[in-house]
Fold:
Amino acid sequence: MSEPIIEITPTAHAELIKLRDAEEDAASLGLRLEIVSGPGEEFKYDLSLDEFRKAAFSDEVRTHDGLKVIVPAKDVELLQGAVLDFTSSGGLVIRNPNRPQAPMVEGLVKDDELSAEIESVIAVDVNPALAAHGGFVTYVGHDGDGTAFLTMGGGCHGCSMSRMTMLEGVQTTVVEKVPAISRVRDLTDHTSGENPFYR
Structure:
Protein backbone atom coordinates (compact mmCIF):
# COMPACT_ATOMS: atom_id res chain seq x y z
CA MET A 1 0.00 0.00 0.00
CA SER A 2 2.98 2.31 0.49
CA GLU A 3 4.26 2.04 -3.08
CA PRO A 4 4.26 5.38 -4.95
CA ILE A 5 1.40 5.86 -7.40
CA ILE A 6 3.26 8.34 -9.58
CA GLU A 7 7.01 8.81 -10.04
CA ILE A 8 8.35 12.26 -9.17
CA THR A 9 11.69 13.21 -10.72
CA PRO A 10 14.34 14.84 -8.50
CA THR A 11 13.95 18.21 -10.27
CA ALA A 12 10.14 18.14 -9.84
CA HIS A 13 10.53 17.06 -6.20
CA ALA A 14 12.90 19.96 -5.49
CA GLU A 15 10.49 22.43 -7.13
CA LEU A 16 7.50 21.09 -5.18
CA ILE A 17 9.41 21.25 -1.88
CA LYS A 18 10.36 24.86 -2.68
CA LEU A 19 6.72 25.76 -3.42
CA ARG A 20 5.47 24.00 -0.29
CA ASP A 21 8.09 25.52 2.00
CA ALA A 22 7.14 29.01 0.85
CA GLU A 23 3.73 28.54 2.51
CA GLU A 24 3.10 29.47 6.16
CA ASP A 25 1.63 26.07 7.04
CA ALA A 26 4.20 24.09 5.02
CA ALA A 27 4.50 21.28 7.58
CA SER A 28 0.86 20.30 7.09
CA LEU A 29 0.79 20.56 3.28
CA GLY A 30 1.12 17.95 0.59
CA LEU A 31 0.64 17.86 -3.16
CA ARG A 32 -2.90 17.01 -4.24
CA LEU A 33 -2.90 15.56 -7.76
CA GLU A 34 -6.24 15.01 -9.46
CA ILE A 35 -7.51 14.28 -12.96
CA VAL A 36 -10.25 16.81 -13.69
CA SER A 37 -11.23 15.83 -17.24
CA GLY A 38 -14.25 13.70 -18.06
CA PRO A 39 -14.29 10.19 -19.61
CA GLY A 40 -13.00 10.19 -23.17
CA GLU A 41 -11.44 13.66 -22.83
CA GLU A 42 -7.71 14.28 -22.96
CA PHE A 43 -6.29 14.15 -19.43
CA LYS A 44 -6.28 17.49 -17.59
CA TYR A 45 -4.70 17.69 -14.15
CA ASP A 46 -5.19 19.85 -11.09
CA LEU A 47 -2.12 20.18 -8.86
CA SER A 48 -2.54 22.05 -5.59
CA LEU A 49 -1.07 22.22 -2.10
CA ASP A 50 -3.52 20.76 0.38
CA GLU A 51 -3.58 19.70 4.04
CA PHE A 52 -2.81 15.99 3.90
CA ARG A 53 -4.33 15.35 7.35
CA LYS A 54 -7.69 16.50 5.92
CA ALA A 55 -7.55 14.13 2.95
CA ALA A 56 -10.74 12.17 2.36
CA PHE A 57 -10.87 8.64 3.78
CA SER A 58 -10.90 7.26 0.22
CA ASP A 59 -7.87 9.33 -0.89
CA GLU A 60 -4.51 7.60 -1.24
CA VAL A 61 -1.67 9.41 0.53
CA ARG A 62 1.94 8.48 -0.27
CA THR A 63 5.21 9.95 0.99
CA HIS A 64 7.88 10.80 -1.58
CA ASP A 65 11.11 11.61 0.27
CA GLY A 66 9.40 13.93 2.77
CA LEU A 67 6.67 15.15 0.40
CA LYS A 68 3.11 13.89 0.92
CA VAL A 69 1.20 13.21 -2.31
CA ILE A 70 -2.61 12.91 -2.20
CA VAL A 71 -4.43 11.13 -5.03
CA PRO A 72 -8.23 10.63 -5.11
CA ALA A 73 -9.25 6.96 -5.31
CA LYS A 74 -10.90 7.50 -8.72
CA ASP A 75 -7.55 8.53 -10.25
CA VAL A 76 -5.17 5.94 -8.75
CA GLU A 77 -5.41 3.46 -11.62
CA LEU A 78 -5.20 6.19 -14.28
CA LEU A 79 -1.99 7.60 -12.74
CA GLN A 80 -0.12 4.30 -12.27
CA GLY A 81 3.19 4.51 -14.12
CA ALA A 82 2.93 8.28 -14.72
CA VAL A 83 5.92 10.59 -14.18
CA LEU A 84 5.76 14.11 -12.76
CA ASP A 85 8.70 16.14 -14.06
CA PHE A 86 9.84 19.76 -14.04
CA THR A 87 11.48 21.60 -16.93
CA SER A 88 12.59 25.22 -17.06
CA SER A 89 10.59 25.76 -20.26
CA GLY A 90 7.41 23.81 -19.44
CA GLY A 91 7.22 23.94 -15.63
CA LEU A 92 5.60 20.93 -13.95
CA VAL A 93 4.58 18.35 -16.56
CA ILE A 94 3.00 14.90 -16.28
CA ARG A 95 3.89 12.12 -18.70
CA ASN A 96 1.14 9.53 -18.39
CA PRO A 97 1.21 6.21 -20.30
CA ASN A 98 -2.47 5.60 -19.51
CA ARG A 99 -5.36 6.62 -21.73
CA PRO A 100 -8.64 8.25 -20.76
CA GLN A 101 -11.56 5.92 -20.09
CA ALA A 102 -14.03 5.79 -22.95
CA PRO A 103 -17.12 7.95 -22.48
CA MET A 104 -20.36 6.13 -21.70
CA VAL A 105 -22.96 6.61 -24.42
CA GLU A 106 -26.42 5.23 -23.75
CA GLY A 107 -27.60 2.57 -26.18
CA LEU A 108 -24.15 1.50 -27.41
CA VAL A 109 -22.79 -2.03 -26.99
CA LYS A 110 -19.15 -2.45 -25.99
CA ASP A 111 -18.82 -5.83 -24.27
CA ASP A 112 -19.74 -8.33 -27.02
CA GLU A 113 -17.77 -10.38 -29.56
CA LEU A 114 -18.02 -7.68 -32.24
CA SER A 115 -16.61 -5.10 -29.82
CA ALA A 116 -13.67 -7.40 -29.07
CA GLU A 117 -13.02 -7.69 -32.81
CA ILE A 118 -13.12 -3.90 -33.28
CA GLU A 119 -10.86 -3.29 -30.27
CA SER A 120 -8.36 -5.82 -31.62
CA VAL A 121 -8.19 -3.99 -34.98
CA ILE A 122 -7.71 -0.66 -33.18
CA ALA A 123 -4.93 -2.09 -31.00
CA VAL A 124 -3.09 -3.93 -33.80
CA ASP A 125 -3.70 -1.85 -36.95
CA VAL A 126 -4.96 1.64 -36.06
CA ASN A 127 -3.19 2.91 -32.94
CA PRO A 128 0.35 1.83 -33.95
CA ALA A 129 -0.04 3.97 -37.10
CA LEU A 130 -1.36 6.95 -35.11
CA ALA A 131 1.33 6.58 -32.44
CA ALA A 132 3.89 8.11 -34.82
CA HIS A 133 1.96 11.37 -34.39
CA GLY A 134 1.45 10.88 -30.65
CA GLY A 135 -2.22 10.08 -31.17
CA PHE A 136 -4.63 7.24 -30.51
CA VAL A 137 -8.29 6.34 -30.85
CA THR A 138 -10.48 4.88 -28.10
CA TYR A 139 -13.38 2.55 -28.86
CA VAL A 140 -16.66 3.71 -27.30
CA GLY A 141 -19.11 1.12 -28.62
CA HIS A 142 -21.28 0.14 -31.60
CA ASP A 143 -24.98 0.65 -32.27
CA GLY A 144 -25.75 -2.85 -33.58
CA ASP A 145 -26.52 -1.33 -36.98
CA GLY A 146 -23.04 -1.17 -38.50
CA THR A 147 -21.68 2.00 -36.87
CA ALA A 148 -18.65 1.98 -34.55
CA PHE A 149 -18.19 5.01 -32.28
CA LEU A 150 -14.67 6.21 -31.44
CA THR A 151 -12.88 9.20 -29.92
CA MET A 152 -9.44 10.56 -30.79
CA GLY A 153 -6.82 11.61 -28.26
CA GLY A 154 -3.17 12.51 -27.79
CA GLY A 155 -1.61 14.31 -30.75
CA CYS A 156 -4.80 13.70 -32.77
CA HIS A 157 -7.13 15.55 -30.41
CA GLY A 158 -7.86 19.00 -31.77
CA CYS A 159 -5.56 18.52 -34.76
CA SER A 160 -7.00 20.15 -37.88
CA MET A 161 -6.36 16.93 -39.81
CA SER A 162 -7.84 14.60 -37.21
CA ARG A 163 -11.37 14.51 -38.63
CA MET A 164 -9.92 13.58 -42.02
CA THR A 165 -7.78 10.91 -40.36
CA MET A 166 -10.80 9.46 -38.56
CA LEU A 167 -13.11 9.49 -41.58
CA GLU A 168 -10.60 8.27 -44.15
CA GLY A 169 -7.78 6.37 -42.47
CA VAL A 170 -9.39 4.87 -39.39
CA GLN A 171 -12.79 4.17 -40.97
CA THR A 172 -11.16 2.51 -43.99
CA THR A 173 -9.12 0.20 -41.78
CA VAL A 174 -11.98 -0.74 -39.43
CA VAL A 175 -14.52 -1.31 -42.23
CA GLU A 176 -12.02 -3.42 -44.19
CA LYS A 177 -11.06 -5.61 -41.22
CA VAL A 178 -14.49 -5.89 -39.55
CA PRO A 179 -17.19 -6.84 -42.09
CA ALA A 180 -20.05 -6.14 -39.64
CA ILE A 181 -19.02 -2.45 -39.47
CA SER A 182 -19.85 -0.18 -42.40
CA ARG A 183 -18.97 3.23 -40.94
CA VAL A 184 -17.22 4.98 -38.06
CA ARG A 185 -18.56 7.93 -36.11
CA ASP A 186 -16.19 10.34 -34.35
CA LEU A 187 -17.41 11.50 -30.91
CA THR A 188 -14.35 13.67 -30.24
CA ASP A 189 -14.93 17.29 -29.24
CA HIS A 190 -12.49 18.84 -31.73
CA THR A 191 -13.27 22.35 -30.48
CA SER A 192 -11.19 21.81 -27.32
CA GLY A 193 -7.58 20.88 -26.72
CA GLU A 194 -4.30 22.62 -27.41
CA ASN A 195 -4.96 22.88 -31.16
CA PRO A 196 -8.74 23.07 -31.48
CA PHE A 197 -10.28 22.18 -34.80
CA TYR A 198 -12.36 25.37 -34.64
CA ARG A 199 -11.25 28.71 -33.25
Observations:
- Confidence is low (pLDDT under 50) at residues 192-199.
- The chain has two domains: 7-95, 113-186.
